[in-house]
Amino acid sequence: MMTIYKKLLVGLVALLLGWVVVACEKGDIDRTFEGPYFVRFTDTTLTYKESYSQPITIRVHNAGPQLNEAITINYTVSGTAREGKDYAFQSTKGTVTIPAKQSFGEIKLKLINNANNILESQTVVLTLTSVTPNSLKVGFGNEGALGKRMTFIIQDDCLFSGSYAGVRQNGAYVNLLGITPASATVSGIDISSLDCKTYTIANWNIGLEDIFGFSAIKPKFTFIDNGDNSLTIPVQSSPDLGGDTLTGSGSWNPQNRQISLNLRWKSVFTNSAGKDTTLTITFPFTYTPQ
């Protein structure tokens, strides 16, 4: 008798489990996304130093299938940064468009470097408010919170920090070394500082890459802001230049923010008689913010 009851019990349990499995499988099969699709900021935060000179792209994307019509999205602007003083729009303010058959629209900002040696930060807060066509929604999740707002942080930078285009002018070293007189220009020279007093300049060796056999390197040196528009290059040696000594002076033009440096390069050469000879050469450089 107990055996019959056990068989009935096992059969009943198996039947119930079968119903559960079938129900789950059917529910999974029938579960389809019914929308709505939405638009959102690709990034919720971005941070740049105010000395960054290139246009900055902030993306808004359609988190769904591409449409055969353009998508127009409206947004508001708030935050502590001041338009026209800390940044400027290089796209239509308040509206961004995702073209037909594409997934991304772009908002473009340009930072204004008003460096004043006060190291603080400002924010530009962009908030999506509406979208056309109305088959789409703004943001995802509870009340569309996800991706609806984007905070752009502008970090203050030191007075001379940033990216520069540099020009090496002809100097006395030209005749001394028998080099054909010619100036040289290069972009992407980086000047940076941690304390707004001592600055490091990289990739400064404009047009000198092969003169002393240090091709394909980008040596650095430091200079000091004296606080009166004059600059000092303290005595220093550069491992990249084989221990040669660098020193010099310079100035800063507050009108065009241009930096002029007279770099004195002291190097030891072995002459034809096999004796070491000390040679000091002055290299004039001018650096213009990009």
Automatic annotation (TrEMBL):
This is DUF4843 domain-containing protein. InterPro entries: CalX-like_sf.
